[in-house]
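Lecture 7 notes: from sequence to structure.

We start with a single chain of 396 residues. Read the sequence below before looking at the structure.
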Amino acid sequence: MDPAADRFGARRLLPHDAVIHRAEGAWLYDVDGHRYLDCLNVASAALQGHSHPRVMRAMAEQAARMTLSTRAVANDHLPPLLERLERLTHHDVVVVRHSSADALAVALEVARQVANSRKGISLSAGHVVACKGNGLGIGGWPAAELARYPRAVVTPQPGYSLVRFGDADALAHAITPDTVAFVVEPLQATDGFECPPDGYLASVEAICRQHDVLLVIDETQTGLGRTGHLLASRAEGVRGDLVLLGKALSSGFYPVAAVAASGDCGQVLRTVPHDAAFTSNPLGCAVACAALDVIVDEDLPSRARALGRELLEMLRAIKSPYVREIRGRGLWVSIQLTCHAHAFNEALMDSGVAVNDAHDTTIRLSPTLTVNRAELAWLVDRVARVLDDRSLKSPA
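Now the structure, written as tokens:
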């Protein structure tokens, strides 16, 4: 563990002693020469594989030409990126932002303005419903994180309600006359990887339509192939009024995010100020174009579906009294234990598998989508050995 990082920086999430200095493909390498199969994947930000040569080349070439341009003029990489995102999202208006939190803030501003126009709700009174455990920027730190950090300083934001993910009835009861939007992830990762009941997204879409509440689908982690589809919501036949993208949009090279919309939301999205210094900068746009081309040209969603099925089959063949359930979508898998997971996650890290505590009783595995079958077999072998270690169990 780097003492300077802990002395001068913010507290990290349940840190391990490893200090990483290099990453390539599916692997991380620490300063002592050990390597780790990356099953954290920076919240799916590098699902194309670390240091993908095509994205690296695009970044280097653009950095040599121009990294930043004034928003008073266009740059030659923004239009190609917008065209790609419009095709991908099936929405006709897209804006590029410099972070996922920024994209969410823009989406909620659009929702408030649309609700003001449609329903006369004051811009300062708009109420937003979100799911517990969804993102850090929508009115509260996830409950699982607060439990781990009781001294965390978190200022509750007014105008938000949090409901249980997967419970459509809870959404219906939380909606008020002043509700402007419901923010939801198709699958939830922050609190240990949770799949909703079948038909959940369609149900909440219908509830939102019934109450004239905008549906904001957060595909920041689920989008761009991780779950086996370019958009996880599209696989459910659901189309959000606003869709958020980020993380893998730049393959881990540069912070880039996007908001997509159509209709009334699209018209308002065009008018929201987008003049922040780094918004839509040419370096970020060039990187994002290359990152999206890698996803499409290498057909990473199909690869995630096929390898994800194989990984689930191999993991479910492991016989362990500690395993309660193994579930997943694409190359996003969680092993739900009957006991605390921390010691198992630590043991996996020690055996060369980079994981973190996603939830008290969860081992979460999200390798790059470029991982190969031999690497997945190696991963399953390490998981099987750890789950066979009787000394690691602690009560849940």
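The chain has a mean pLDDT of 88. Keep this in mind for problem set 3.
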